[in-house]
Amino acid sequence: MTAARTGFVSQTHSGDATLENWIARGGAADFDFVEVYMDGATNRRALDPQEVAARADDHDLDVLVHLPFVDLDLGTPRDGVRDAAIAELEACLRVAADMDAAKAVVHPSSRATPPEWNRDVVVPRIVDAIADLDAVAADHGVELCAENLPGGYFLLSSFDPLLEGTEVSMTFDTGHARVDGYDAQAMAEYLDAHRDRVSHVHVNDAREAADEHVPTGSGTTDFATALAPLDDDWDGTLSLEVYTFDFDYLEISREKLHAVL
Are 182 and 190 in contact (CB under 8 A)? Predict the structure, then answer.
């Protein structure tokens, strides 16, 4: 079994589950960390970072964060919009640092798409934005981890230009990889070739090539094969990203995951 530390993404943005409860449940279940989704009900303005840090410490949990993305555009040619998005993410990184977060997941995304705007215009702007955010994160002691997406400019199959153009670490999302046509063996080959850049994994199970986030083990993803390159020499983190408000499913998901790793 891999020695990687295992945690979970907080599904607290809708307000149906509270961060306080999930931290308490995560600590009681001996998870290693909570990945705080910083949007909606848990956006940066709604959080008391010192309180989150203290609460996590009380429950022996480390903190990671997932930065907001749904309305933030890092590639738009409209400078004012892009600058505001970058400024918001920089503010989130400062709050993350105040929460003693070790890592921050970021989506390298844009809604500027063809036919109005093509890759040659948008992709360099995303790459530059990620490079700038990576520097800000490093200045605050946070490791920035850019995530492969299920659509847009940085699917797994088109992710390498981001790694080549920046020093950012990578969040590898298994469900997003499946949407992009990667089976378990292809995922393993990608991880084997990029394990020096992959610092974080979103364990995202699905019943088909879709971004479903069902409880781990209830889908058809062959995690034993897909994650095999992340052996005992890999020192990254595994985050269960399950769309549920019932914490029991996270405990079951960890059990199912650890049974095959």
Answer: yes
Alpha helices in 140-236 (DSSP H): 160-165, 174-179, 184-194, 223-226
Domain of 65, CATH number, reads 3.20.20.150
Mean pLDDT of the chain: 97
Let me know: does 252 contact 215? Beta carbons within 8 Å: yes
Q: According to the model, what pLDDT value does residue 63 have?
A: 99
- At 1-21, the pLDDT tens digits run 567 999 999 999 999 999 999
CB atoms within 10 A of CB 102: 18
| Integer angstrom CA distances of residue 101 from 15, 49, 214 | 22, 10, 26
- 216, with CB counted inside 10 A (0-12, 13-18, 19+), is buried
Put simply, whether the predicted model's pTM sits higher than 0.90 gets the answer yes
Residue 67, Cβ density class (10 Å: 0-12 exposed, 13-18 middle, ≥19 buried): buried
Distance between alpha carbon 101 and the CA centroid of its chain, in Å? 13
Tokens at residue 212, please? 């479903």
> Can you say how many angstroms the Cα of residue 33 is from the centroid of all Cα atoms in its chain?
13
Please count the CA atoms within 13 angstroms of the CA of 17 that sit on its side-chain side: 20
HSE toward the beta carbon, residue 119, CA cutoff 13 A: 7
Domain of residue 203, residue span:
5-260
Domain count, the chain: 1
In this predicted structure, what is the pLDDT of residue 1? 52
